[in-house]
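One record is given unchanged without comment:
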Amino acid sequence: MDNTRDHFFYKHRDYLFRLNKRSKLLTDLETYKQFRNRLTHAKDLDKRKYYEEQFAQNRRNSKRTWKLINDIFGKTKPSSFPQRLKVDGRVYSATKLIADALNRSFVTRLRQILLLLAHLKLLI
């Protein structure tokens, strides 16, 4: 769908929604649902076609391919490294101290999980 046609379809969907809310008739509700579902289906087909074309055009470009994959799954670039970190009431601002605090936190969590798993194995 192109943008001008999209705009018309979305306005028409919204019109059908308002009409249904005002009239409260089952026929208006069914008309709205059918139009909404057709519009959603058309949008999904267009999206699929777009990504198929993009993958075909970029089949030899792994960077662009991974960008498309991440786009499909809604992944964004990772956030930047934190400037400050508060752990157990202490605030860390130096990069090395933040990294050490994060490592200690992850190692502590891992030890807790491993102890729990060992305990559960004894119970089984």
About this structure: The radius of gyration is 26 Å. The beta strands are 85-87, 90-92.
